[in-house]
Design goal:
- There is one protein chain.
- The chain is mostly helical.
- Helix content is 77%, strand content 0%.
- Helix 1 (8-41) packs antiparallel against helix 4 (125-156), helix 1 runs parallel beside helix 5 and helix 2 runs antiparallel to helix 5 (166-191).
- The protein is elongated.
């Protein structure tokens, strides 16, 4: 397909999608770097081998998977012209995103309760990596929530139709990416010691 073909709007839409994918690829590379550093650092003598991830991280994983499903249901409802159901699923997705972040902070508190802080005399390199990876991911979820709020606002302004979904689709792609990223990070931290 020739990317220079089509109307100005089609070219603009392709460019916006391409920019999103460039951003996603750079995020993948960043998180791969941090998980690679985690693996390399695991040979240190002060590395914790027997740590358990906080239960709140398990709950947040379930919540974020549910949020991807609700975003899919919102898009399906929008394509079917059901604005009310779209609104419901978008709001449920927003609430689940907030619940995810709440559970992440509960997980950080559980790590602190075990006696490990991010830095200082009560820190440990293993837990510091876990804090770093999870906190940076939470920041991206916050960006996803901001995108979702923009989608909700535009939805209320009736800017989306079954054939005009670019902003909706871009936000959904980013949301699904950060959801898949967390599932990867959770499984990585769960299985790699």
């Amino acid at each position: 397909m020739d990317l220079t073909q089509g109307t100005q709007e089609e070219k603009s839409n392709r460019a916006k999608k391409m920019m999103l994918w460039f951003g996603i690829i750079s995020l993948v590379m960043s998180f791969m770097g941090w998980t690679s550093a985690f693996i390399v650092s695991s040979s240190r003598p002060d590395w914790l081998k027997d740590f358990e991830l906080p239960n709140a991280f398990v709950i947040s994983t379930i919540v974020i998977i549910m949020s991807s499903l609700t975003f899919i249901l919102a898009k399906r409802a929008l394509k079917n012209g059901n604005r009310q159901t779209t609104t419901l699923w978008l709001l449920v997705t927003l609430v689940l995103g907030i619940v995810f972040i709440f559970n992440q902070f509960q997980g950080f508190q559980q790590i602190i309760d075990l006696g490990y802080n991010f830095t200082g005399p009560t820190s440990n390199v293993t837990m510091s990596y876990i804090y770093l990876i999870a906190i940076v991911h939470v920041l991206h979820v916050v960006v996803g929530l901001i995108c979702l709020l923009v989608v909700i606002y535009n939805h209320f302004k009736q800017k989306y139709e079954a054939t005009k979904l670019l902003g909706f689709e871009l936000a959904a792609t980013f949301w699904h990416f950060i959801d898949i990223l967390w599932v990867y990070l959770f499984l990585f931290l769960y299985f790699i010691r």
